[in-house]
Write a structure and sequence with these properties.
Layout lengths: L1 E5 L4 H12 L3 E6 L6 H12 L5 E4 L5 H7 L5 E4 L6 H6 L1 H21 L5 E7 L11 E3 L4 E3 L17 H20 L3 E6 L1 E3 L11 H11 L4 E3 L5 E6 H13 L1 H4 L2 E5 L6 E3 L4 H9 L6 E3 L8 E2 L4 H7 L7 H14 L1 H5 L3
Parallel strand pairs: 1-2, 1-4, 2-3, 4-5, 5-8, 8-12, 9-11, 10-14, 11-15
Antiparallel strand pairs: 6-7, 11-13
Helix pairs in contact: 1-2, 3-5, 5-6, 7-12
């Protein structure tokens, strides 16, 4: 099987490419290397498997012609290339649209025009549900909680794009779904919650779990926006990749479907009121933090209802929060020299 991974040198992409190569599959990595840490991830893959083990194409998803050429002989496209930060989308909305909407459109067209009609997996986001102002949210001592959604937010919850990032990813989300209906492409949308794990070069506005760990170990200042009780369901990257594999293996069932993917209720965490003490235990001392106002589009709570993926794909997260964060902490500590070069 030949898989094209856009954003294949990014955090999720490099981990999936590593998995595919370890299985002996044929892989094309498509990446413009603009993301923090992408060159380091590419170097890691080349050292692990050799420069001839996979094809690397330095390209941008805004280049429709190049994408179409790359998709001619592939069986699946894992579309991970994106502008990924809400704050960046607010500052540069045009670039956000060009990458996330037009880039996704280019991927879909490349698949539609390919003789093999490859399957397309799209990494969407929980931000497509917006701020969910209509929900009744209860404030507890260390976190926020849903009153009426004990299993989390299902795929049927109304979409309400909020922030340019939410709009651009949401538009891509709906294009991917509609290409299955209109053109018969085998597409799958994964509305992903907070993914974390090794090879994540987190920054303040994206990849918060990794960012807090990196900043704490480097001694960089940490700012908490809002009250720190915001809740996310966190999902370890290997569990996410298991879902990708399950969707490809069960393509007759998954094609045309949308799945919420996250840690679910069992792996929810308040971003500082609960994660902060956990990190302080790992590092062995208190961590000073600054405080800032709430950021645009910041949900007080998001927990994914993952039961559809469980039913249809036979998938369930295997790595719990304590174990997963311990694994990421160990990777950051071991690679602190490398991470110091990416500020």
């Amino acid at each position: 099987m030949h898989t094209l991974v856009t954003g294949g040198a990014g955090f999720i992409g490099s981990n999936y490419v590593h998995r595919l190569l370890k299985r002996g599959e044929t892989v094309t990595v498509f990446d413009n290397l603009s993301r923090r840490g992408a060159e380091a991830n590419l170097d890691w893959l080349q050292k692990e498997f050799g420069t001839d083990a996979f094809r690397f194409v330095r390209g941008d998803v805004r280049n429709a012609g190049l994408l179409t050429a790359m998709a001619v002989d592939v069986d699946a496209i894992i579309h991970l290339a994106a502008q990924v930060a809400v704050t960046t989308s607010v500052e540069q909305p045009r670039e956000d649209i060009e990458i996330n909407i037009m880039g996704t459109f280019n991927v879909l067209e490349a698949a539609r025009l390919s003789p093999g009609r490859p399957m397309v997996l799209y990494a969407s986001t929980n931000k497509v549900y917006g701020n969910m102002e209509g929900l009744i949210i209860e404030e507890e001592a260390t976190r926020y909680a849903y009153r009426d959604y004990p299993y989390g937010i299902p795929e049927s919850y109304p979409l309400d794009f909020h922030s340019p990032y939410g709009c651009s990813k949401g538009a891509g989300d709906q294009y991917v779904r509609d290409y299955a209906r209109i053109y018969g492409l085998r597409t799958v949308v994964f509305r992903q919650s907070c993914i974390y794990g090794p090879r994540q070069f987190g920054v303040e506005d994206q990849g918060w779990v990794a960012w807090f760990i990196i900043a704490a170990l480097r001694g960089d200042p940490i700012t908490i926006y809002g009250d720190g009780k915001q809740v996310r369901d966190v999902l370890y990257v290997e569990d996410l990749l298991d879902a990708y594999d399950a969707a490809v293996a069960n393509r007759s069932r998954s094609s045309g479907q949308i799945y919420n993917l996250g840690g679910g209720p069992e792996n929810q965490l308040a971003i500082w009121q609960e994660f902060g003490p956990m990190l302080e235990r790992l590092i062995g001392h208190s961590i000073p933090v600054g405080r800032g106002d709430w950021r645009p589009g910041d949900q007080r709570i998001f927990i994914a209802d993952i039961r559809k993926a469980q039913r249809e794909l036979g998938w369930h997260p295997q790595v719990n929060v304590e174990v997963g964060i311990g694994k990421l902490y160990a990777w950051v500590a071991e690679n602190l020299g490398l991470l110091r070069t990416y500020r």
